[in-house]
Specification:
Blueprint: H1 2-11, H2 32-60, H3 70-111, H4 118-136, H5 141-159, H6 165-169
């Protein structure tokens, strides 16, 4: 077995060292144009999620009946099954949206010469500021601060050009 591994290493076709492609990579870089394309896809996914929510709301509305027939029972079972399928589809779509967003932002941060950990700073800071506003009814300064953080994130990720790869690879980690 070891001889086969050494032969594969010499030929450069080692299956163990080949990186597996992932659906939502966190390594690498993307420029502004692919970033905007991914954000458009995320917006379309959010529209799909909203449509699923509307269908769920329609299915959850029941009508009062005085008599129940076998057909009403069958319709009730099919409605429940459709509801469960739509809930599972909504969970799947939401997961894909979140993973796509994280992947796009982290890779765009890499293109800007920054660590992907900055995503946590952007999201947590804005989230904490908005939560404080909702919890305590803080002054208008807090929502403006949250808006400023989100505006800077938008400018940093979507508008500013990336840093050349030579400059990012020479930085210490």
């Amino acid at each position: 077995m070891a001889a086969l591994q050494r032969a594969a290493d010499r030929s450069g076709t080692s299956r163990m060292s080949d990186p597996q492609p992932t659906a939502f990579p966190l390594a690498g870089r993307i420029g502004r144009q692919p970033f905007w394309g991914q954000m458009l896809g995320i917006l379309l996914g959010l529209a799909l999620l909203r449509g699923i929510g509307i269908l769920l709301a329609i299915l959850s509305i029941g009508r009062a009946r005085e008599t129940m027939t076998a057909l009403d029972d069958l319709i009730g079972i099919l409605t429940t099954l459709a509801f469960l399928v739509l809930v599972m589809a909504a969970i799947f779509v939401f997961t894909v949206i979140v993973l796509s967003f994280v992947s796009a932002v982290v890779r765009r941060l890499h293109d800007r010469g920054k660590s992907g950990r900055r995503l946590v700073l952007y999201c947590v800071l804005a989230g904490v500021l908005l939560a404080e506003t909702l919890r305590h009814g803080a002054a208008m300064v807090v929502p403006f601060a949250a808006a400023a953080v989100l505006l800077w994130e938008l400018i940093d990720l979507a508008i500013m050009p990336g840093v050349p790869a030579e400059q990012t690879s020479s930085k210490p980690a």
